[in-house]
Specification:
CATH architecture: Alpha-Beta Barrel
CATH superfamily: Dihydropteroate synthase-like
Oligomer: single chain
Number of domains: 1
Helix content: 40-55%
Number of strands: 13
Radius of gyration: 18 Å
Number of helices: 11
Structural class: alpha/beta
Length: 301
């Protein structure tokens, strides 16, 4: 069913394993935290948060991770240098999850996040999110000079909106540049903007997994957040099942991770993705290969 020419790479980032043949290593879910309009944030400029509510959110994610066997990383979104440093400082002490540095396309914020992680001694736990076709050379230099080894590549721009072939071309150049910068642990986000691009992203992830073997996935939730006709035509009650459906599609088609959007949606996404992981593990069992523990197969039945 999943016949890849390239050997499938399993990476370990901050204690979390990611990648490999579908069904063997649990899918990694990447919830976003401290994004714009996140209720956990009191002041986006200074990085002031509601620590009590944040602790409850992290406890919930830890519980879901343990009960499902899925991996968890956190996409840490910040718009200023001050807020990025405060968020990272809090999270590195409050959780063991790997952290994605997401400076909302701000070169300065992303570089500051990398430098802070190095100075504070947890560079091995962070991933830059993301390196793109539009990334300035200064960020690649910051990756190289810091010794950061983990990078998420976004293989998407306006020119590749409707083309999986162009996304593969972008991946080719980004992988080469990232390797030159000294970051061997590469994750590939194949880029989702709306419903049609979710299909193209899933096709691209399949091609890239076969070509390179790096862990692949995408931000499938974007397909729902940009679906303008969803609520007017089907009502608010359709939003949650649509969100779950969007997260399941890439996993069923071989994704190693999903950027699932706001962390508050974790209670409906984690059990659903765990279900797909169990189903995919059946393919391996038929081949007399057992999935590695911990895995949803051993936990959710």
């Amino acid at each position: 069913m999943f016949d890849y020419k390239a050997d499938q790479r399993t990476l370990e980032i901050g204690g979390t394993r990611i990648g490999g043949p579908p069904g063997r290593i649990p899918t990694v879910l990447i919830p976003s935290i401290f994004y714009t309009k996140d209720r956990l944030v009191k002041n986006v400029e200074t990085g002031e948060i509601d620590k009590r509510a944040t602790e409850e959110m992290l406890n919930m994610l830890t519980d879901l991770t343990e009960r499902t066997g899925l991996g968890t990383m956190l996409d840490v979104v910040a718009t200023t240098i001050e807020s990025m440093e405060k968020y990272l400082r809090y999270l590195v002490d409050s959780t063991s999850f790997p952290l994605l540095i997401d400076g909302s396309d701000s070169l300065e914020v992303n570089i500051a996040g990398i430098k802070f992680a190095k100075e504070a001694g947890f560079l091995d736990r962070v991933v830059i999110n993301s390196l793109t076709p539009d990334t300035k050379e200064e960020l690649f230099i910051a990756v190289e000079e810091s010794g950061l080894t983990n990078a998420l590549l976004l293989t998407f721009n306006t020119a590749s909106m409707t083309s999986s072939a162009k996304r593969v071309e972008i991946a080719d150049s980004l992988i080469q540049r990232t390797q030159e910068a000294g970051a061997p642990n590469i994750l590939i986000d194949t880029g989702v903007m709306d419903l049609p691009t979710l299909g193209i992203a899933c096709k691209t992830q399949h091609i890239l997994k076969g070509k390179y073997g790096y862990p692949v996935g995408n931000g499938a939730h974007n397909a729902i957040s940009t679906w303008q006709g969803l609520v007017p035509k089907f009502g608010k009650e359709a939003k949650k099942p649509a969100l779950v459906g969007s997260s399941l599609m890439p996993v069923a088609l071989g994704a190693d991770f999903v950027l699932m959007g706001p962390a508050k949606d974790a209670p409906i996404v984690y059990p659903s993705v765990a279900m797909i992981d169990v189903a995919l593990s059946g393919i391996l069992i038929e081949e007399r290969v057992r999935p590695d523990k911990p895995h949803p197969r051993y936990l959710i039945g």
